[in-house]
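Review box. Two proteins, two foldings.
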Amino acid sequence: MTEPPIKVLLGKLGLDGHDRGIQVVAQALVDAGMEVIYTGLRQSPESLLRAAIEEDVDVIGVSSLSGAHNTLFPALVEACTKEGLDVILFGGGIIPEEDVAVLIEKGFDEIFTAGTPLSLIVTRLRELVKK
C-alpha cells in the first residue's frame, strides 16, 4: 500500500505582494508528488492556521520578501502552538543568514533562503515528514 502524498499548505504572510517564488516552489512540490494548497497573498497567521486545520496538512510553508519575517513567522508559530497544531513549518524568501538561526530557534523546522535549489527543498521536506 502506498503512503498518501505529503500535504502542504503555502501562503504569503502580511502585506508582501510578491508571490512568484512561492508559486515556483508550489509547482516543484506538486511535481514531486505532494498535494499543495496555496492560500495566496496577504494572509494572517490566524488565516493560515485555520486553513491548515481545515485541510489537515502535514506542512505549512510561508514566504517573505518584505522583511517582516522576524515578526510574522514567530506569530505563526505562536498561533500553531496556542491551537495545539503539530505540523512542520518552513519559510523562505529574502531572509538574511543571521535571521535563519533565530527563526529556527523560535520554532521553524527549516528556512530556505533565496536561491535554494528546488530539489533540496523537496528532499528536506520529505526528510522532515518522515521524522
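Next protein.
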Amino acid sequence: MSKVIIQNPCSCFLKSGLLQEEEFDTKTEAKAKAEKLLIEMSQKFCNKHQFSMSERFGDFTVYIKPRR
C-alpha cells in the first residue's frame, strides 16, 4: 500500500473537496495521483502557493508552501 498525503493544506485545498490522504494498492497509482494533484492545484488554485512532491518508502507527500 502506498499513500498520497497533503502537507499544510491551504484554504483553496480545503474548499476543493479533495482528500488530504488517500491510499493506493501500488506505488505507481499513488505517484500518478500525486502528479495529477500537483497539476490540478497549480492550474486551479489561487496562485498564492507553490507545490512540490517527495517520495519516501513508497508514500508520496505533496507540500503546499507560500510563494515568496
